[in-house]
Amino acid sequence: MTVAASQIFHATCVSVRGQGLLITGPSGSGKSSLALRMLTLGAQLVSDDRTLLWSENGQLHARCPAPEIAGLIEARCIGILRSPEIDSTKVALVADLAQVEIERLPPLRRVTILGCDLPLVLQVQNDHFPNALMLYLRHGRQA
After folding, report:
1. Quick one: pLDDT at residue 5?
2. Distance CA 18, CA 103 (A)
3. Predicted TM-score of the model (pTM)
4. Residue 3: its pLDDT value, please?
5. Domains of the chain (ranges plus CATH)?
6. Which of 43, 29, 15 is nearest to 123 (CA)?
7. Hey, which of 19, 55, 106, 126 would disulfide with 137, CB 3.0 to 4.6 Å?
8. How crowded is residue 38: how many other Cβ atoms within 10 Å of its Cβ?
9. Which of 26, 80, 20 is nearest to 46 (CA)?
10. CB-based contact 59:132 (threshold 8 Å)
11. Sign of the CA dihedral 62, 67, 70, 73?
């Protein structure tokens, strides 16, 4: 087993049937908001705002970096909410909210994090974004 050093990222993570979505972007870009919408669709919370990532055997993994924030997620203008959480997940997809997708049928994008090559989607400014991500994590994307 090969384990690389771990690192805490400014990111939120949810999981759907063991397939993690790492949501990245600057403060105020909507990471927690997207995660909240996905939680109502059946995703499970891994971590909000800070995520501990590590690579193991070429696969990226995520978990909450501190027990005092486990199971907590920020809902702007409402407060910090409790949510059932899972301990860790394998990251299967990255959503970068710092960039907006402009192509109707975008190419397959990739990103490398801690030496792991992962599929990447950019922010979609459309109501179907959380639903599409749920379907992507459950069933994948056509090449």
Report:
1. 76
2. 29
3. 0.95
4. 60
5. 7-139 (3.40.50.300)
6. 29
7. 19
8. 25
9. 20
10. no
11. negative
**Residue 138, phi then psi, degrees to nearest 5:** -80, -40
pLDDT in tens, the chain (143 residues): 566 679 999 999 999 999 999 999 999 999 999 999 999 999 999 999 999 999 999 999 999 999 999 999 999 999 999 999 999 999 999 999 999 999 999 999 999 999 999 999 999 999 999 999 999 999 999 98
Give the chain's length. 143
82: which 2 tokens? 């409790």
CA distance 56 to 114: 10
Gap between the Cα atoms of 84 and 53, Å rounded: 20
Give the angle subtended at the CA of 114 by the CAs of 87 and 111, to the nearest 5°.
Answer: 100
